[in-house]
Amino acid sequence: MAQPQQTEAQDVTEAEAAQTADAEHHDPAQALAEAEAAFEAERNEMRDRLMRALAELENTRKRAERDRRDAAAYGGAKLARDLLPVFDNLNRALAAADEKSRAEAKSLFDGVELTLRELLNVLSRHGVERIAPKPGEPFDPHLHEAMFEAPVPQFAAGQIIQVMTEGFRMRDQLLRPAQVGVSSKTAD
Q1: Which of 12, 50, 64, 104 is 20 to 30 Å from the Cα of 87, by its Cα?
Q2: What residues of the chain score a pLDDT lower than 70?
Q3: Within the chain, how many helices (H) and strands (E) appear?
């Protein structure tokens, strides 16, 4: 049993001797150069990671600032879009009344007109503007939606012949295009 222990001890001694021999043949200047190269590579990697992290942080800051500006400028767009049917209904109520009805219920119609004006003033204060084309104006596909096309002798092709619903935009964002009829015939 003593022999296996002696063999293990001899193996350990031989391994230590091999390491000592390698260390004696290893040049300290070369070891220093290798350590310096490893340090340089690690430093360059850390610098690259730092620069990428700083760039990502700057991009996130810019994106957050842009999102904040957009929210301030267009945050009310959904609410404004939801109020457009109220505008349409007030307009329809005023358009449906004849002169006799208006005379009989003057204060009611005055109240509806006042409410409509106030709604437009509130929308205007928040950057919402009406798109109210007139018959004869040229059709603009960026602002108008053609609901039908018909040949009308007194209008040139591409001119608006009827406005069915006014449009609205908030700054440069279209909330709803104006719905119009467009002439398909050239003027005679």
Answers
A1: 104
A2: 1-26, 186-188
A3: 5, 6
